[in-house]
Structures are given as C-alpha cells and as structure tokens.
Write a structure and sequence with these properties.
Blueprint (H helix, E strand, L loop, with lengths): L5 E5 L1 H6 L35 E5 L8 E8 L8 E7 L6 E3 L5 E4 L10 E10 L10 E8 L13 E6 L7 E4 L17 E6 L4 E3 L5 E4 L11 E9 L9 E11 L7 E2 L3 E7 L7 E5 L1 E2 L9 E8 L5 E5 L6 E5 L10 E10 L13 E11 L6 E2 L3 E7 L7 E4 L2 E2 L8 E5 L9 E3 L5 E4 L10 E10 L6 E11 L7 E2 L5 E4 L7 E8 L11 E4 L1 H4 L4 E5 L4 E6 L11 E9 L7 E13 L5 E4 L12 H14 L47 H4 L4 E3 L22 E3 L4 H16 L49 H7 L10
C-alpha cells in the first residue's frame, strides 16, 4: 500500500518561504483502491518531506487561541480516516491539535524569557485501527522574541567618590544595565547609556557606561556632593525602545588645597602669677577648610620674649594650639609676655604648592596678674649640725623667709610639730632662730627632718613651708660592751694555753676614724690561776686557759670579768662578765654534759654569807619578769561622752581600805622599792642532765629613774593627743588604766622548779641545824665548793 508523506503547514508567511521546496517535495501517490486497514504491513515507498520547526510570537494578547501551524499527511485524502495526535512538552496544556485537520493552536500566553522553545512529537493514525500510517515525527515550536523587557541596573543605585580638583575625563565609576530580551534576535537587547541629570559636571560613555568628570577644578569646599541620573535604552536608543534609569551619588573627596588661616592676627590673654607649671594658659586655632589629615597642623613659637617660659602644642582632637606654662610666673619680675606663633599644615600636597605657603602666623600677648603669694624661704632646705652634747637652749641655726609681694609683710615662724613629735627644738617666731629644747641623743635619732612654717603677719592664711635638716654630731658617750651574750664551754681535758673563746665588742658611737677597742681582765681577776686574756689588736680578744685538769664535779661554772675600753675622748670602758662552763666532752671536743651549778666563792666569803645568798636565790626563783604586769590597754577616746565627763559627774566609791595599820594583806616594802628591778633568772637549785645555756652575767641589780616607765607612758599619750585632730579645744582630763611594772619580789611559786633528779649538792643543809635535817637527808650528798675567779 502506498503511503503519502506528512506535511507540516505553518503560517501563511512561512509557506510562501517554502514554495521553492515544493519542487523537490513529496510526490503525490496515486490513490489506492484497497482499504487502508488491509492487515498487511505498511510499506513506505517514498518518504515525504517533514517540516520540523514552528515559530510562535510571545506575549500574544488575543482572546482566541493563537494559530501555530498545520500538520498534514499525504495519506489523508480528506475522507476522515486519518487522525492526528500531538505529544511532548506543553501538549494538551499549552498546545492543542485538531485531530481531523491537524491544525495546532497555542491556548496560553507564552513568554520567551521563561521558556524559549518546546519539543513535541506528531503522529498520524488510522482512525479505525488506531495504527500509525506515518512514522512519528519530532518537531520544535520556538517562541519568537519581541521587545518586552526594559534594561535594568542590577547594582544600582551607585555611590562613588572622586578627588576634588581632578582633571577632566577622570574616571568616576562604571554603571551596567542588562536586558532580558534575546540578544541574538534584532536590537531588543542592545543598550546605550546617556546622562539625564549631572551635566555639565559629569558625562557617561554611551557604550561602556563609564562616568567621567566633565569640568576641571571642582572644589569640595564649594560643593562636595552631586546626584546623577543615568539612563540605559534598548533598540540602540531608537524610537520605541524601552529604557531604565539609576542614580549615582558622587562625592568629592578632600585634598590639601587650602592653607591654615588664623581668624585674628592678635590675641590677648591674662593669667595669675600663681598658675602652676604645666597648666594651660590659652588656646588658639587656625582655621583650615580641609578635613581629616589634610587639616592637621603643627604650632610653634617662632619669636617673642616668652621662649622657654611657654610652650605650644596641637590638640590632636580639635587641632587647637594649646599654650602651656613651662616656668613659674612672677609678677614682680615680669608682668607681660609677647609670643609670635606659627601654624603650618602637617601634610602638604606637592601638586598645590603653587597656590601659596601652607602656614600662617599670629601674635599672642600674655599679661601676668599679681596675686598674694605665701612667704618664700631663701633656701628650701636648710642644713644644720648640732652636737648631741649640746645643752638646752643651744642655738643651732637660722631660717629666713620673705614676702615676695610688694607689700613685704612681716614673717612669723613656727615648727610643724607633726615633724617634731618629741619637741626637741624651738624656733623664735620673729627671727627664725632654731635652738634645742631637749637633750639630743645621736644613737636614738641621728638626723631630724623638721618642717618650718613661715606665715604672713597681715594674712595668716598665706603660709610658706621650708625644711630644716638637723644632723646630730656624735660624742663618745657610750662604753663598748660584748657584741653578743657569749656562752663559753670548757672541756675537762683542756690543755694549758688553749683558746676557749674569742670575743668582740660593739659601741653605738661612731668615731670618725672608726672603732678601736682594748681588752683586759679586771684587776681583781688578773691574778687568777685559771684563765688569761689576750688582746688580738683587731677589736677582738682571746680567752685562754692557764692550766689543765678542770673538773666539773669540783667546780662547773666560772665567771671571768673583762674590761673593754674604747679610743674615744674621753675614753669609756665597761666591765663585762664572761661565763665559762666546765663540760664533759667527746673526743672531738664537743660538749656532752655540763653542770648548771654556779660557784661564787670570792676571796674572804664566809659560809654564812653563802647561806644567806642561797636563801635569797631560793626565795626569788618564782618571781615573774619585771614588766610582766604591764598589759596592753585599749586606747580611750580623747573626747569623753556625757556619762564619763569628769567635769559634770561625781563618781562615788563606797570602798574602804584598811588604813596605814593594814599590813597583813601584802608587804609594803615591795611598794617602797620601785626603783630596783631585778633581772629574771632561772632557778639554780637543780642541775639538768643535758647541756643548757645560761645568762653570761651574774644577777646584777639595775637602777632605773624614779617611776620612769610611768613618765614614758604618759609622755607617749601626750604626743598622741597633740597630733589627734579630734582632740577637744578645751583642757580635758585623760584617764589611763596602766598598772605599771610587776613586783620586784618576783614569783614565789615553785611551779617553775626543774626536776629534782639532779646533781645539785645540798649537803651543807646539815650544817644549818636540826630544823634542816629532813631536807639534808632528802637532798644532801658530797659537798662542792664555789669560787669566783
């Protein structure tokens, strides 16, 4: 069976373009007498030409479906036996086909920018058998572009900057517009640029969109910002083309094209002469139309009589010239100053040097005002010397101050007692003469730093301050003593001539040539048979044994009195007692066991005297330290409250003492011997088994001034009251709960007694009579002897 070809009919205009093709088109087959559906295979003898592309305009706005084209098969004889079927993209939803005629229509409005073409498939079927009469053919429907999109500036609006004074043609910024239409079809997407606003200052290149300056010497100080409107139009700018616009904000950036200028050529300022150094005197400013670094400037004094007296520097925030004081002003010396100050740009642009100098000058007049000044000392620090042996009232030196003002007021002097709490010095209020008010002691305070006040008589509020530095010169008023409390141990097997101790001395005095000490035994000890002393001539001395064969059982402790003298004028000396304890030593000479018993048998000392001394020692063993009764007391306020004000209250006590006859409660003798204070010593009635250290001196009595500790206590409280700012202006009674020192009898308690398991010899108790027999039986054994060297 012969089959015809499938013809594709499109718009009339397109068919005319294809007339030439019909010459080589499909040959029209002869109609077959047999029916189409013969049940036999279809045999194509000649394939007809197939048109495979349609065109349809976008954005169709008509009410009826838009005709796209026509499909036709040569097999279709118009008998209604052929049915046309359409499939693929948009089939049935966008494109429909008349199955009888093969006409294709678009039922929806198409947009090329959304989809530019559609691929579909067409087939001719036998309506009765539904079998294809032609092979399936694929074709494309292309959406043809129209100019329906205007150019758009996707990056707009724009901002840009260009330096002021830029030459013509300087590039500012490039703008770009895009057109969604088909750039390959017609001129719908060909854009040109033009400037609608911003002339004559700027121009734009039509093809590239580059904006450039159009005028020279645009000055930022005259106008710093411009608003441009740029248009982009398609169709190469022809009539009927679509257009879009954008704005471009152009800012002129600053360059240093303006010099600084003072608003005035002369400035006048007034300052008081009391203005402190480094204070701000005045501020001046040179105006500069530029901004930022281009407006930064430096100031300097180039002339005038204030060089060295004043300094000018820029304020980095305000660019002002700050004038500060460098030296102290004095109205009486100079009452006015004149300065010539220059302001110059810090960052100069070489391109604009031809415009002139980038600096300016101004004159500043400064007037000094007179103020009432405090007195001024002729020397801020007055150095004086005084001997520590100076008597009360000795004149040390003189300070001098004067009133710097023209009034020249009289001056009165006083000492700041906060710097002289002990009141060692006085000053004459009129003459400024300083003298001693108390005995000085260089060893307590070698240098006194006191503040002197100088006050104007006419105006007491004007007070000047000066320093008096008083150095106390040393005299030889202290004797040398042992450098330390020596504890000397002597081995029983010591040989004659053996050095058992090297001693040195200290002296709080400070002679100009240094110390030189002399050592010797006291006359009463010089002839002893046990020890000798050798002066080493280097401020030390060596103690040597004269013999051997020492036995601690015979005598365990020796006291050696040593005389130490200095080289001062006059020479002073003191006797210091060295304790030497006999010990049992190991082969290396290290003490292992020492007796604690002290033997004191000076020549001519009787047994009865020894018994009396021993009784006193046993009685005094339990006494407390001399000042153990002094307890710290809470400081009472200097201002008394109403309940304790002794001026307004009478306190009644109903306690009654026993009178003078009441002597049973305590020993009155102890109260009458406050001048004597005994050093506290450990008990010597028991000898420990292990080596122990004892005081290096015998138990002397120390004499102190009458009630000295009370006077010192009250004097300390008086000094506290003198410097207490809350002290009342009226005379007031101060009460102090101070107990003073402890009993000179010390403690009688036996709680401090050492162990009774000792080697102490108490056999002499049997010589005291039957009353001591029991004690002799308990403690007595072999008799020992006591000797003082």
């Amino acid at each position: 069976m012969r089959m015809g070809c499938l013809r594709v009919w499109t718009l009339a205009g397109l068919l005319m373009l294809l007339l030439a093709l019909w010459e080589v088109g499909c040959s029209e087959p002869s109609p077959s007498p047999e029916p189409l559906d013969t049940g036999t295979a279809l045999h194509r003898q000649k394939r007809s030409w197939v048109w495979n592309q349609f065109f349809v305009l976008e954005e169709y706005t008509g009410d009826d479906p838009l005709y796209v084209g026509k499909l036709h098969s040569d097999v279709d004889k118009g008998e209604g036996r052929v049915k046309y079927v359409l499939s693929g993209e948009g089939a049935s939803s966008i494109f429909i086909i008349d199955e009888n005629t093969g006409d294709i229509h678009a039922t929806k409005r198409l947009d090329r920018e959304e989809q530019a073409y559609y691929t579909l498939r067409a087939q001719a079927l036998d309506r009765y058998t539904n079998r294809p009469v032609e092979p399936e053919s694929e074709f494309i429907i292309k959406v043809q572009d129209i100019n329906d999109n205007e150019p758009k500036f996707l990056d707009g609006p724009y901002t840009a900057g260009v330096p002021e004074m830029s030459p013509v043609g300087t590039s500012v910024v490039q703008v770009v517009a895009t057109d969604a239409d088909d750039p390959t079809y017609g001129n719908s997407a060909r854009v040109v640029y033009s400037i609608l606003e911003g002339q004559p200052y700027f121009s734009v290149e039509s093809k590239t969109g580059i904006i450039r300056t159009a005028l020279p010497s645009m000055d930022r100080e005259a106008r710093d910002q411009y608003l441009l409107v740029i248009q982009a139009k398609d169709m190469v700018g022809q009539m009927g083309g679509l257009s879009g616009t954008t704005s471009v904000t152009v800012t002129l950036t600053d360059v240093n094209d303006n010099p600084p200028r003072f608003t005035r050529k002369s400035y006048q300022f007034t300052v008081p002469e009391s203005l402190p150094v480094a204070s701000v005197v005045a501020k001046i400013k040179a105006a500069d139309s530029d901004v930022g670094p281009n407006a930064e400037m430096d100031y300097r004094i180039i002339d005038g009589d204030g060089l060295g007296m004043f300094k000018v520097a820029p304020d980095k925030d305000t660019q002002e010239g700050v004038i500060t004081l460098q030296k102290v002003l004095d109205f009486e010396t100079k009452a006015s100053y004149t300065l010539r100050i220059e302001a110059v740009n810090r960052n100069i642009d070489p391109r604009f040097v031809n415009l002139g100098t980038f600096s300016d000058t101004a004159t500043v007049h400064i007037t000094v005002e007179d103020v009432d000044e405090p007195p001024v000392f002729s020397s801020p620090v007055s150095k004086m010397v005084v001997s520590e042996a100076a008597k009360l009232g000795t004149i040390i030196g003189t300070v001098s101050a004067h009133d710097p003002d023209s009034s020249n007021s009289a001056i009165r002097y006083s000492i700041d007692r906060n710097t002289d709490l002990e009141r060692f010095f006085n000053i004459d209020a009129t003459t400024g003469v300083i003298s001693t008010a108390k005995q000085l002691d260089r060893e307590v305070n070698a240098v006194h730093n006191i503040t002197i006040f100088a006050m104007e008589s006419q105006d007491p509020l004007q007070v000047g301050k000066g320093i008096a530095l008083i150095t106390v010169m040393d005299i030889n008023d202290n004797a040398p003593v042992f450098a330390i409390d020596y504890e000397t141990f002597l081995c029983e097997d010591a040989k004659p001539g053996q050095v058992i101790q090297t001693i040195s001395a200290v002296d709080p005095d400070e002679p100009p040539s240094g110390h030189r000490f002399f050592f010797a035994l006291t006359p009463e000890a010089a002839s002893n048979l046990n020890f000798t002393l050798r002066d080493n001539k280097d401020n030390t001395a060596s103690v040597l044994t004269k013999r051997g064969g020492f036995r601690r059982r015979e005598q365990s402790l020796y006291w050696l009195p040593i005389l130490i003298g200095d080289s001062g004028t006059p020479s002073l000396s003191s006797t210091n007692t060295l304790s030497i304890r006999v010990c049992d030593c190991d082969p290396d000479g290290m003490a292992q066991s020492c007796s604690a018993e002290a033997y004191m048998l000076p020549a001519g000392l009787s047994t009865g005297a020894l018994v009396a001394i021993l009784a006193c020692v046993l009685t005094l063993l339990g006494s407390p330290p001399p000042f153990s009764g002094i307890r710290p007391q809470k400081k009472e306020p200097l201002i008394l409250d109403e309940e304790r004000d002794v001026r307004e209250n009478i306190v009644r006590y109903d306690d009654e003492g026993g009178g003078e006859e009441d002597t049973e409660a305590f020993d009155m003798v102890a109260l009458r011997n406050l001048n004597v204070i005994r050093d506290h010593k450990a008990r010597r009635d028991v000898t420990p088994e292990v080596p122990i250290f004892f005081s290096s001196r015998p138990p002397p009595y120390k004499t102190v001034p009458d009630n000295g500790i009370f006077r010192e206590f009250i004097w300390d409280r008086l000094k506290d009251a003198d410097v207490d700012p809350s002290a009342p202006p009226y005379d007031s009674l101060q009460t102090y709960a101070f107990e003073g020192s402890g009993s000179v009898a010390e403690s009688l308690s036996s709680l401090e007694s050492l162990s009774t398991d000792s080697d102490q010899n108490y056999d002499y108790l049997s010589d005291w009579g039957p009353r001591f027999k029991k004690l002799a039986d308990l403690y007595g054994h072999s008799e020992g002897s006591n000797m003082f060297l």
